[in-house]
Design brief:
4 helices, mainly alpha
């Protein structure tokens, strides 16, 4: 995964958590830093920013709960593998 992708993800998240420093492996939802509305915004942002489609079966909090998970999801979508789906499970 590209470090510049992680930087973009961190910057987007920072604007929604009021510049609270978030570790790359910190669960944004479990920590109470964001809510379910943010999840919708995050998915839409990922699709626009990285020019990819998120399928219904990929709409799993595990794919979007941490900076590492989001970056891994994006990297997985860029790598052709079977049906192109990626999951952190």
């Amino acid at each position: 995964m590209a470090e510049d992708d992680k930087d973009r993800i961190r910057d987007f998240i920072a604007t929604h958590v009021h510049d609270v420093e978030v570790d790359d492996d910190e669960d944004l939802f479990a920590a109470g830093l964001v809510n379910s509305l943010f999840a919708v915004q995050l998915v839409m942002w990922v699709e626009r920013t990285f020019d990819l489609q998120v399928s219904a079966k990929e709409l799993d909090f595990a794919n979007f709960s941490t900076v590492d998970a989001i970056a891994g999801f994006v990297a997985g979508k860029r790598t052709p593998a079977g049906d192109g789906a990626w999951t952190s499970n």
